[in-house]
Amino acid sequence: MKVAIITGGSKGLGAALATEMFQYGMKVISVARTRNEKLEQIAKENQAVFEQYQCDLSNRKETEELFSSISKELLQQNASTIHIVNNAAVVGPIEKIGRISSEELEKSLHINILAPMLINNMFTAVFQNTSTQLIVVNITSGAANHPVHGWSVYGPTKAALDLYTETAALEQTEGEQKPVFISFNPGVMDTEMQTEIRSATKDNFKDVEKFKEYKEKSILRTPNLVAEKLAKLMTGESLETGKVYKINDLL
């Protein structure tokens, strides 16, 4: 049995990727704040096994309890391959340093970097001495590579996620099935995150007009297109562990 676990799987790229994974005959597990009834219907039409769990990834205890349960269940089911797609992320707070509340800062750090680290750490521990192939895909961003005004939280968390991916890949060199860790940059997509970005004020986010122009000129890619390319990449046989893949290289 092959499995795809997708955080933020109820919307945007996560939902599009879940739909793609149905085509590959995988059991798909979505972990998100909300449920997607349409995905359940699509799964039925494709005779796919689909599970949805609601979880607040900014809550460490809730995250640990859920993924501990999922990992134990998959261990009992003797899953042959497990794809973990750490897709859930928040772009906010879109605000200058000095104006960000401690609560906003903590929530963003939990969702964008701590949750993926907790999940990856847990699954690596559970499956490191088994025959299960673990493939981890951490969704990153171009904002990881350069500073963006107003993104003092989002950009640094994505940069941290990329370095974490490289470090994890460096460490996982032993075992029957060596885990694979990659980062994937999907580029700019037409999602709710983009809507949030365009709603920011110019005082908080100097590049807001540029992102509005992306929408007006139809520059934004569809999540379906990106999901199609990502699904093909992560199920292929030539994944290079530790690499940061970019959507532009797959088009």
Question: In brief, what are we looking at here?
Answer:
By secondary structure, the chain is of the alpha/beta class. The chain contains eight helices and seven strands; from the N terminus they run βαβαβαβαβαβαααβ.
List keywords for this structure.
single chain, alpha/beta, 7-stranded parallel sheet, Rossmann fold
Can you describe this structure?
The chain is 44% helix and 16% strand. Strand 1 (2-7), helix 1 and strand 2 form a beta-alpha-beta unit. The protein has helices at 12-23, 37-45, 60-76, 102-127, 154-171, 192-198, 208-216, 223-234, and strands at residues 2-7, 27-32, 50-54, 81-86, 133-139, 180-185, 244-246. It has eight helices and seven strands, in the order E-H-E-H-E-H-E-H-E-H-E-H-H-H-E. The protein has one domain (2-187, 222-249): Rossmann fold (3-Layer(aba) Sandwich), CATH 3.40.50.720. The protein has a seven-stranded parallel sheet with strand order 3-2-1-4-5-6-7, with helices on both faces. The longest helix has 26 residues, at 102-127. Helix 1 crosses helix 8 (223-234), helix 3 packs parallel to helix 4 and helix 4 (102-127) runs parallel beside helix 5 (154-171). It is α/β, with parallel strands linked by helices.
SSE layout and pairing:
Layout: E1 2-7, H1 12-23, E2 27-32, H2 37-45, E3 50-54, H3 60-76, E4 81-86, H4 102-127, E5 133-139, H5 154-171, E6 180-185, H6 192-198, H7 208-216, H8 223-234, E7 244-246
Parallel strand pairs: 1-2, 1-4, 2-3, 4-5, 5-6, 6-7
